[in-house]
Amino acid sequence: MPGVTNDGPLLDTLPLPDLMPWSVAPLRLGRGWPVAPDAASLKARWDAFVRSPQDRREALLEPSRSRTLHTAAAQLPGQRAGTEPLAHAEGACPEPVRVLHGPFDEQWLIPDQRLIDAARPELWRVADERQLFLVEQGYVPEAGGPAVIACAVLPEGRSPAGRPGRIRPLYRRPGGAEPNVAPGLLMHLSGTYGQEVRPEDLLAWVLAAGDRDAKGCRVPLPADPEVWARGVALGRRALWLHRRGVGADRPKLPGGRRPYVRAPLPARPAELLYDREEEALLVGDGRISPVPAAAWDFHVSGVRVLEQWFARRTAPAEPGTLAAVRPATWPQPWTSELLELVAALALLAQLGPLQDELRAGLGDLIGPDELRRARVLPVPESARRPASVLDLPEEGPGGQFALL
User: Taking each helix axis from N to C terminus, what angle separates 199-209 and 225-242, rounded to the nearest 10 degrees?
Assistant: First the structure.
């Protein structure tokens, strides 16, 4: 049964929390040195930390109210790290894991809860090869850019604008079990569209049609099956680009528009500039082209993605800190990542007009009243809380085991 039309007010759309109820606050690292663009730097930082005398170790840690040398903490779910206070830590670095440190910026993190002020263990419990995450981005008026970012690796969740968003896993349990979707919604949509609607379809639709205002991300649900199918296909393409492809299949611009290194990047590039006339990205004295202006102008929450990506690899670190332990010269893999990021952002920008066209032609919407009649709304409070996971033993402080 069709609901209200998209000529109505914004309230005719649905808040994202009514579609994907369970959300988690962003991680709070408390210190910058346990995250880096390369895993080798993290292992070198850990080695420098555990080999330091106690008086020096405390300064290197950069203690906070939540984490000091004497704080005991449990292992993060699925990770192997010590649980004794860091004052007694020794041995090899816990194996770094890939995380989304910022929009379209995958880096590495030491998965040790003793180093992280608020690691959000409930996220780690459901992070596996089946999981996908949506990360809400901070609202900046007239800034443009996506309302949500999707990823398959664990996201830190901080918005570039400094405004906290929320992290919404697609599944509430490991192994792709129990979708994080309002109970009854997928069944109602399947009946409306005459085809099975899967959790991944809903996530793709949110990527394609979701928008935001000062109160957060809002999502229209069309009554027309053809509009839904078109939006899901568009969202699947966006998801693939947000993830920078899958496996060996990576985003590439068509031949003749594919960016290449035209002048070698220097060992220590100090600035990143863009030449619009030449469509060239200037990395210090290095030169990459062609780089579409749309890739350079791609913003999230008012921040240019390419500039932030570069700054997080080249910003000066205070001498003597663990953050200063980093590659002495620009590593070749960073150049490959930069070329890949340029391609992904340029291709995402091409989806923008298609998304605008989709939103302009939604037609009748499935509104809140219809979902209330279908008893999908209001969402039960239990759906907004994490699911219990009782079959995963986790080592607590001092080697004790916790039941969750």
Answer: 90
DSSP annotation of 104: T
For the record, the structure tokens of 215 come out as 């109160």
- The residue among 173, 171, 131, 174 whose CA lies nearest residue 155 is 131
Q: Which residues contact 302 (CB under 8 A, 6 or more apart)?
A: 140, 143, 145, 160, 161
Nearest alpha carbon to residue 113 among 371, 396, 334: 396
pLDDT in tens, 271-315: 999 999 999 999 999 999 999 999 999 999 999 999 999 999 999
Residue 17 CA to residue 232 CA, distance in Å, equals 19
Rounded to 5 degrees, φ, ψ at 157 are: 95, -5
**Beta carbons within 8 Å of 296's beta carbon, 6+ residues apart:** 274, 276, 281, 304, 306
Residues 6+ apart with CB under 8 A from 102: 156, 158, 160, 308, 309, 312
Tokens 């005398």 belong to residue: 53
What is the pTM for the complete model shown?
Answer: 0.93
Q: How confident is the model at residue 112 (pLDDT cuts 50, 70, 90)?
A: very high
Q: Among all chains, which residue has been given the structure tokens 């953050």?
A: 323
